[in-house]
Amino acid sequence: MESRQRYEAGSLVKKRRADGRSEWVLRYRVTLDDGRRVQRQAVVGTTEKYKTESQAQKAADQVRLTINNISPAAQVPTVGPVAQHFKDVELNDANERRSWATKQNYKEMLNLFILPRWETTRMLDVKSVAVEAWLGTLMSTKKTGKPLENGTKQRIRNIFSTLFAHAQRYEFVPIGHNPIKLVRQTGKRSRIPDILEPWETKALWVSAGERERAAISIEFGNGLRICEGFALQWRDIDFERGTALVTKGIVKGHLGKVKTEISKKLVPLHPYQLEDLAAWRAGSSYSDDDDWVFASHRSRGKKPLWPHMILRRHVQPLARKLGITKTIGWHTFRRTFASLLKANGEDVKVVQELCRHANPSTTMGLYAQAFTDDARRAQGKVVEMVHRAEIPEAAKAAGA
Hints:
The chain is mainly alpha-helical. Helices cover about 45% and strands about 10% of the residues. The strands form 3 sheets. A 3-stranded antiparallel sheet has the order 1-2-3. A 3-stranded antiparallel sheet has the order 4-5-8. It has a two-stranded antiparallel ribbon with strand order 6-7. A hairpin with a 4-residue loop joins strand 4 (about 235-240) and strand 5. Helix 3 (about 100-120) packs across helix 5 (about 150-170), helix 6 (about 200-205) runs antiparallel to helix 7 (about 210-220) and helix 7 packs across helix 11.
């Protein structure tokens, strides 16, 4: 009869070290090649890090996965330790397969949604129908009382599927076992995102203070991702040639690479934008070449401002004052930029270059890159269109 490999759970004990500190240690047995069973031990962590045995046991699950990394029949781990193994291996700082922002998003989706429901469930007991039903019950974490957006649910589904792929790779589940692939979840938006009219963009642009005006000018005139616009330094702006060099992005205070390789490039700046930037630089306390364009006073210029602070405290209140009732976020300006390019009849390859999409299908098809002269002309037309727009008298009076 074929023998079945055993799952080694080991025993968790607390030991005092020579320096007086205590640590949790997992004792377990392994089978040598000659068949002898010998005892081994692995340090789980200090009692300062894991204050209770329950916390230490969860951490010890990672050690158990390592020492039992044999055939699927020998172990049936729960979702919790596999998720932690995935974080340790795939989402650590040294792993560059994913950007910092993507790794943070994976951790948030795991911690906020997947683990609270599935942490103690065996991987082999996760069923497609149950996951599909669970996704339908998820509510927003923003205390709005509204269901979670379909796009977020779809992202959670995809991350859960990635977790099963990781489990297969390390043979925590049988190869091919991924019930999440059968889970149906649409990513269709529940509402169409708002696009600003040219006059609405102009009203915000000309009514804002110098700092906000410079930020709005870059966002609507170039469609930069907000993480890119607020990661600009003055040395990135070439006032003579009328360009900005986009090479980095900042997300939640973390400075890193831009989203895609194609995003790293020069973008054209219109003379009106250069005027706004020059006016802001003249009034800013941080105007040296190495300073951030939108430097934070709280950090004494060492870090950029948080974009959402400016949005909540200045841009959105200004929009309400001007009578603009649309939902406005920084990405609204990027969508507006792309929509105005399309409305002007620009070639798709020009839109792709200006929006710096890595996937050509994002800009409606597969095309080659456009010449910079075409891109500058197209970008200039958008800025000119907004500049010429007539602002209603009521909005003029409100912004005065």
